[in-house]
Amino acid sequence: MTGTTRYDAEVPTATRGLARDALSLEDIERRVQDRFPTVATEIAHGELTFHAAPDVLVDLLSFCRDDEELSCELLADLAGVHWPAGEHVIERQPSTTGWPEYRVARDRGVIEVLYLLRSVTRNHAFRVAVGTDDTAPCLPSVTGVYPTADFHEREVYDFFGVEFEGHPDLTRILMPDDWVGHPHRKDYPLGGVDIPYEHDRFIPPPDERDLREVIE
Amino acid sequence: MTATDPTPAARSDDEVFVEGADWETIVDAVVDDTLTVNMGPQHPSTHGVLRLILELDGETVLGLKPVVGYLHTGIEKNAEYRTWVQGTTFFTRMDYLSPLFNELAYCLGVERLLDIEVPERAQAVRVILTEFNRIASHLVWLATAGMELGTTTVMTAGFREREHVLDLFESQSGLRMNHAYIRPGGLAQDVTDDFVARCDALLELLPARIADYEDLLLENPIWRDRLEGVGIIDAEACYRYGITGPLLRAAGVPWDLRKAQPYSGIDAYDFEVATDDACDSYGRFLVRLEEMRQSMRIIRQALDSLPGGPVMVPDRRIAWPSQQSLGADGIGNDPEYIRHIMGESMESLINHFKLVTQGFTVPAGQVYSAVESPRGELGYAITSTGTNKPYRVHVRDPSFVNLQGADEMTRGLMISDVVAVVSSIDPVMGGVDR
After folding, report:
1. All domains of chain B, ordered by start, with CATH?
2. Checking DSSP bridges between strand A163-165 and strand A110-119, what pairing results, if any?
3. CB contact, 8 Å: B392 with chain A?
4. Do the chains contact at A74 and B404, CB–CB below 8 Å?
5. Which three-class secondary structure state does DSSP give residue B348?
6. Cβ-based contacts of B275 with chain A (< 8 Å)
7. Span A25-188: which CATH code?
8. How many C-beta neighbours within 10 Å does residue A15 have?
9. What residues are paired with A202 via a beta bridge?
10. With an 8 Å Cβ cutoff, are B387 and A127 in contact?
11. ipTM score of the complex?
């Protein structure tokens, strides 16, 4: 465990916290953009997202944590999403519904990492989204700002292969230690691996199996 | 990773590797008395398959490292290949002690993407059942914590009362656990006619039983000795590790998503957030006891003002087409509806077929929906690309996050206290490993 990184932000307590006025999404947007003009914002479904570049990530999160107005004490969630390169038309039947068809083309694959920051004292939450190229995904670790990111970053490394620079112990967390590949990437082959059988024998995965051989 | 590998070349002289029948050599060679011990994953006190690597000096814990992943089932990945409704049957299996919270948090996210308002009756039933689920979950916590600390009376009592709550769930959803009862848009089916009577009977029974636990434990010197001053973590450390739920409330912070970000109309009910200033395991015990009482308060009010009406959105593109009820033959049937789709309306038959086989589509976007589960903030980060399947669902499970505090909470304690501390965190490995 890490947990050695301490910070001196004032601790909200029962007496100090929870009563302050919540900031509106626009206020949060303004507050962050005053300090980080390069950060793009997006409000959708009643949620605020900042799209930041990897090099400002640590500064941005430190600012959100230490700023008197934002005071985001909690890194509530950290999740990865893989958007592979190429053109994707998702199959569906548009005739039954009125929603638009999803069609997108990307010239480079991106792994998007979402940081959900939450303020206990101000009762607001917003998201910081950072993209990294999926051929050699690499992001700075935020364990120095939020030690809780330790497990989360290990999970994103495990599932997407994102190298978090500066993470104290970046190892697999949910998959077995000797697992090959990062299963939540969209280009991860489904259909699986050889299945161990007795006497050190292996049975090929179902989609490669010769049924006659198995029956014999 | 490679830097810490104990490769033969990197072994220093004072490192000792136990190979058997060499006790004398070991005793001579040991310079400091630290010992690394592996606890679990098959250990009765580790709530499933949690493995703890303990760094010990005698019986004193110098460090603790949780190792998780033994129960990983790839539910998040699986859900990417299932329709939105099928998702509920997967996510309900994550944190198996609070299945309804999993369903609720997931459905709230899907509903926010769909931009639909769930009928009032469905919202009230959701609140009633999830609060009963909170009671059931805390009862299991009490039972297992009691078992691990040696009071088997509490164990049998806790599981006994929980069984009554599960009976209620079974009567409404057909299943004791993993209900898939809360669906995007409302509920799988309306509650039964005797629902209120069943809830009333439970609300009659539980307060007396909780008073029994208090009689048994509040002044029990062994219980207090094992818990008081053990596993201390203050609010500042909770924030650092992202810890929420009873642990944060026992550190004096009245943070509860039911108050802060109300869902399912829970802000209409009068209740208080239980807190304690002790920051220790005993404080968490008191907080959980009080939370059970407050949950009953919420249920009482929700039952008294239970509105009528439908339990599913009227939108025929989303709602499961038939509301089947159980016939005398034990088979779910809706003769009126079958007559309609088979005899009157071809379009209804097509709609039924398409909804059941393909499901509905959800507009593109990203949402994060969170509820206050018995263990803390349970969040679903859902990404949709406008299809009939989720593009990605990430679950922020409170047990997974809270476990990170175990190191700080156990440092300097004895091995036996590790059991008390881990049980006070109340991790559910189904949720941790997902």
Report:
1. 75-314+363-397 (1.10.645.10), 325-357 (no CATH)
2. unpaired
3. yes
4. no
5. helix
6. 14
7. 3.30.460.80
8. 8
9. A196
10. no
11. 0.83
Tell me the one-letter amino acid at B386.
Answer: G
Pairing of strands B182-183, B60-67: unpaired
Q: What is the pLDDT along chain B (434 residues), one digit of tens a residue?
A: 344 444 444 455 666 566 666 666 666 666 667 888 888 787 777 677 888 888 888 888 888 889 988 889 889 998 988 889 899 999 999 988 999 999 999 999 999 998 898 999 999 999 999 999 999 999 999 998 888 888 888 889 889 999 999 999 988 888 888 888 999 988 888 888 889 999 999 999 999 999 988 888 888 888 888 888 888 898 888 998 999 999 998 988 888 888 888 888 888 888 888 888 888 899 999 999 999 999 999 999 999 999 988 888 888 888 877 766 666 666 667 778 888 888 888 888 888 888 888 888 888 889 999 999 999 999 999 998 878 889 899 999 999 999 998 998 998 888 888 888 988 888 898 889 88
Do B379 and A116 lie within an 8 Å CB cutoff? yes
Residue of B254, B261, B364 lying closest to A102 (CB–CB):
B364
Are the CB atoms for B269 and B130 separated by under 8 Å? no
Interface test with B, best of A16, A75, A81, A118 (most B CBs within 10 A): A118
Contact A127 B366 (CB under 8 A): yes
Q: Please tell me whether residue B298 adopts helix, strand or coil conformation.
A: helix
